[in-house]
Amino acid sequence: AKMGIRGSGAAQYLAITFLIVALLIALVAAGLLSAARSEEAEGRIDHLLVRPVSRYTWLAGRLAVATGCLIAAGLVAGAVCWLGAGSQHSGVGFATLLGAGLNVVPPAVFILGVGALTFGAWPRAVSAVTYGLLAWSFLVELIGGITGASHWILDTSLFHQMSAAPAISPNWTSGAILIALGVAAGGLGAVAFRNRDLAGE
After folding, report:
1. b/e for 175-198, b at 16 or more Cβ within 10 A?
2. To the nearest 10°, the Cα dihedral for 37, 67, 65, 124?
3. What is the pLDDT of residue 171?
4. What is the pLDDT of residues 60-96, one digit of tens each?
5. Which of 35, 104, 159, 170 gives the lowest tally of CB atoms within 10 Å of its CB?
6. How far apart are alpha carbons 130 and 125 in whole angstroms?
7. Which residues contact 77 (CB under 8 A, 6 or more apart)?
8. Which value, to the nearest 10 degrees, does the dihedral of the CA atoms of residues 153, 155, 158, 160 take?
9. 163 HSE (CA, 13 A, CB side)
10. Are 115 and 185 in contact (CB under 8 A)?
11. Beta carbons of 21 and 78 less than 8 angstroms apart
């Protein structure tokens, strides 16, 4: 209740569950950018970029595939939660849980975009920025929500920008803004990567 989660017991429990799912999917996004950085740092990307593959195409392709994976993970999470909730006759419908699964994707897309921007502009800081943003967002949402922290602090958490679905209907406007900001950051990151030198360890 202190975290603003309303609804039935099952919906409240699932809302907390989807917060954990949001963390896990965001970890996937951070991991994908760290993997791209590792390819560059260890020189594996050199063998690809000396061929007719542009840097922009390489990074944009990775980001597109990563975004698709994040969306698929959200949908699978919603479907699997529906199977579990249905077996216990929770009364939470399939469409509601599928929406809750999609609701956790925007923070991960934002982290992916910020990570891509960092990769393009300051490659050695990719892991620090992405995992730092992720850790801050989760701790603020969890601890700040329980302790009743100021909304100015809570608003700095990416997870606070998504609704506690399925207990609360998803805020698709907020999600669309996070996705738009993530896509814009990713595009800037791809341009920055195209114009910089490769950086080793």
Report:
1. beebbeebbebbbebbbbbeeeee
2. -10
3. 92
4. 889 999 999 999 999 999 999 999 887 777 778 899 9
5. 35
6. 8
7. 18, 21, 25, 101, 104
8. 100
9. 22
10. no
11. no
CA distance 87 to 82: 8
3-state secondary structure 91-154: CCCHHHHHHHHHHCHHHHHHHHHHHHHHHHHCHHHHHHHHHHHHHHHHHHHHHHHHHCCCHHHH
Q: Provide the token pair at 115.
A: 């990570």
Question: By the 8 A CB rule, do 163 and 170 touch?
Answer: yes
pTM (predicted TM-score) = 0.90
Count of residues making up the chain: 201
With beta carbons less than 8 A apart as the criterion, state whether 101 and 18 touch: yes
Q: Considering only the C-alpha atoms of the chain, give the largest distance between any 2 of them, rounded to a whole number of Å.
A: 58
Owner of token pair 């919906």: 11
What is the token pair recorded at 96?
């509601």
